Amino acid sequence: MASQLLPLELIDKCVGSRIWVVMKGDKGTSCHPSYPYSKFAGTLVGFDDYVNMVLEDVTEFDYSGNHTKLKKILLNGNNICMLIPGGEGPIAASA
Amino acid sequence: MENGATSQGEGKDPSGFLSEIIGNPVTVKLNSGVVYKAGASGGIGELQSVDGYMNIALDKTEEYINGVKKRSYGDAFVRGNNVMYISAD
């Protein structure tokens, strides 16, 4: 069997690369990149065992479709639903 | 756990980032969408302290709801479970 890559090892491979983070909704029941939940696209600087993440050159896409640029943030891992390596966020996805 | 998180340098992983931004102006967004800015608009407010739960103490804080400034506080404590992100301004 091919060597297995653990989930957090996959994220570790993304350090230094662009990543797309999809948050879960208020109800926390489901998430999908095309759903109007908050999303963040940025360069992954680091993370910890809770998947709290430090992101750089971030664009925040909120549920109402607004964009906000942020230089460097610590994103709480508690509400993260999905991580998409190499993703540039909803703009690139819909282009 | 071999996720590399422990091998990252100061200012890279979450705890390093936190120690890096203590004393600086910050923007904190809660899960509710409410935004708290400490010292963002050229003021002298700052992030006073933060702990492993992301509990936060802010100095000279402005509260924004839907992007509109609603109130300001001298000191504010935010319980960590409500925090979506902490941004260095």
TrEMBL record, chain A:
Pfam families in the record: LSM
Species, as recorded: Sordaria brevicollis
Taxonomy, superkingdom: Eukaryota
Subunit structure and binding partners: LSm subunits form a heteromer with a doughnut shape.
Higher taxonomy: Eukaryota, Fungi, Dikarya, Ascomycota, Pezizomycotina
Gene3D superfamilies linked to this entry: 2.30.30.100
GO molecular function, one term: RNA binding
Task of the protein: Plays a role in U6 snRNP assembly and function. Binds to the 3' end of U6 snRNA.
Residue span(s) of domain Sm: 6-89
Protein name, per record: LSM complex subunit LSM5
Family note: Belongs to the snRNP Sm proteins family.
UniProt keyword terms in alphabetical order: Acetylation, mRNA processing, mRNA splicing, Nucleus, Ribonucleoprotein, RNA-binding, Spliceosome
GO biological process terms held by the UniProt record: mRNA splicing, via spliceosome
Cell location: Nucleus
GO cellular component: Lsm1-7-Pat1 complex; spliceosomal complex; U4/U6 x U5 tri-snRNP complex; U6 snRNP
UniProtKB/TrEMBL annotation, chain B:
Entry annotated with the keyword Cytoplasm: yes
Molecular function terms, GO-annotated: RNA binding
SMART domains referenced in this protein's UniProt entry, alphabetically: Sm (SM00651)
Domain Sm: 13-89
Pfam families: LSM
Keyword vocabulary terms for this entry: Cytoplasm, mRNA processing, mRNA splicing, Nucleus, Ribonucleoprotein, RNA-binding, rRNA processing, Spliceosome, tRNA processing
GO BP annotations listed: maturation of SSU-rRNA; mRNA splicing, via spliceosome; tRNA processing
Cellular component GO terms held in the UniProt record: nucleolus; P-body; sno(s)RNA-containing ribonucleoprotein complex; spliceosomal complex; U4/U6 x U5 tri-snRNP complex; U6 snRNP
Keyword Ribonucleoprotein tagged: yes
Subcellular location: Cytoplasm; Nucleus
PANTHER family to which the protein is assigned, alphabetical: SMALL NUCLEAR RIBONUCLEOPROTEIN F SNRNP-F (PTHR11021), U6 SNRNA-ASSOCIATED SM-LIKE PROTEIN LSM6 (PTHR11021:SF1)
Similarity section: Belongs to the snRNP Sm proteins family. SmF/LSm6 subfamily.
Role according to the record: Component of LSm protein complexes, which are involved in RNA processing and may function in a chaperone-like manner, facilitating the efficient association of RNA processing factors with their substrates. Component of the cytoplasmic LSM1-LSM7 complex, which is thought to be involved in mRNA degradation by activating the decapping step in the 5'-to-3' mRNA decay pathway. Component of the nuclear LSM2-LSM8 complex, which is involved in splicing of nuclear mRNAs.
UniProt name for this protein: U6 snRNA-associated Sm-like protein LSm6
Species of the source: Sordaria brevicollis
